Amino acid sequence: MSNVTLQLAERVAFLRLEDVPPEVLGHARLCVLDALGAALRGGREPSARLVRALAEKEGGAPIATVWGHSLKTGSLQAALLNGVSAHALDFDDTHQAVPVHVSAAVLPAVFAAAEMTEGTLGDLLTGYAAGAETAIRAGLALGRSHVHRGWHPTGTVGTLGAAAGGARVLGLAPDRTAQAIGLAATQAAGFMKAVTGNMAKPLNAGKASMNGLLAAVLARDGFTGPADIASASSDFAAAFSEGFDPACLAFGGDHGWEILNIAVKLFACCSLAQAALEGGRAMRREHRLEDHLISEIELEANPRQMLIAGIPRPDNGSEGKFSLAYCAALGLRGGAGGPGDFEDESLRSPALAALMEKVSVRANPAISEVSARLRVTVKGGQTLDTFIAIARGNPGNPASPEEVKNKFRSLARPVLGDRAEQIISLVLEDASVQSHVKELAKTLSVPAPRN
């Protein structure tokens, strides 16, 4: 077994909750809460409904919770369904440097493992920290060549993170944890651009969670797999990267914590389009713009923003999430950027469509992937300028705990009512770490309808 793989496995297996610095643990809790909110509302989306219908049809041992529903199913099915739900709205968190949707891939696997072992919330948070760091660090080790080759890191390194987190909660020794990571690597998959604006994107998150948990459970039971996936000469490195760097895999202690760099979205669209929407909203707020006053709209964006979120004229709400033009126009019309703004009906608004026609997008490599410059020419020839240096929610301009809690409330209350506040307390309060995950699971469940 490669030393690097075993070293990573040892960091995962030996991680304790008290090893996680308070600042890191605090942000991890916010990410967990945020992912649960995204999943509760995302469970109403067509992609999640289709997966849930399949789970109901096929059945399964009722041992794992489907968040926001009365359904209990098998652990693997629950990881799949909760992962799809968490990413269905594209309103879940992102680590932009990879980029990977961390919590949608890791949390459902860790949660199902904690239900399996009757673990505590402290166990869940420890597993989440181990899994999140593994996913991010694996993505950083692969480098941006991984994405340039067309891979979707949520589906690839997300699988490794789910396996590591699941292995930690299951209590696997380092050698078994290394096997779990190897088994996850051979299942890692998912395309990037091909899934933009369709249901395959949340499927990548769900499959990452399901496959990672499968890897951990099989490794626990003695199943063996690739032993050297973390070496620079491995098949994993060769297939997925042009310059795999194993040194990036270490986390904690002197190596720091990448969890702190996970961004919480404030708008239900692609992370690369957040700044465009925020810029539009800021422009309207500052200048009190009305549609009829606007003659032209020029948006400057990083070339990568244009590659991933550059759909010029989206045909449906899902595509709208990956359209800089739509997001800028939505912001200029005062749209809040919530899930309802990315429904097909919203996209068909004649006023919004007319404003979107005035938007032109221009590449500016000098600005970052989380930035945007908006120039609006109004009737009479005056030009107004707004620059968003770092979209709200990203490192350097993070969302406040209150913003995260309010976002959760907006997503969870329509599903759970007042129980949303119980979830906030369970996830965020220090005293809850000794509480059993089954208490959180019960609060996340919706009673079955009476006949």
Helix content: 40-55%
**Oligomeric state of the chains present here:** single chain
At the fourth level of CATH, the homologous superfamily of the largest domain is 2-methylcitrate dehydratase PrpD
End-to-end Cα distance, whole Å, is 56 Å
Largest sheet: spatial strand order: 4-3-5-6
**What is the C-level CATH assignment of the largest domain?**
Mainly Alpha
Structural class by helix and strand composition:
alpha+beta
CATH architectural arrangement of the largest domain: Orthogonal Bundle
Query: Into which percentage range does the β-strand content fall?
Result: 5-15%
Number of helices: 20
Biggest beta-sheet profile: 4 strands, mixed
CATH fold field value of the largest domain: 2-methylcitrate dehydratase PrpD
Report on this structure:
By secondary structure, the chain is of the alpha+beta class. It has 2 domains: 311 residues, 2-methylcitrate dehydratase PrpD (Orthogonal Bundle); 118 residues, 2-methylcitrate dehydratase PrpD (60s Ribosomal Protein L30, Chain: A). Helix content is 52%, strand content 7%. The strands form 2 sheets. It has a 4-stranded mixed beta sheet with strand order 4-3-5-6. It has a two-stranded antiparallel ribbon with strand order 1-2. Helix 1 packs across helix 8. It is globular, with a radius of gyration of 21 Å. The termini are far apart.
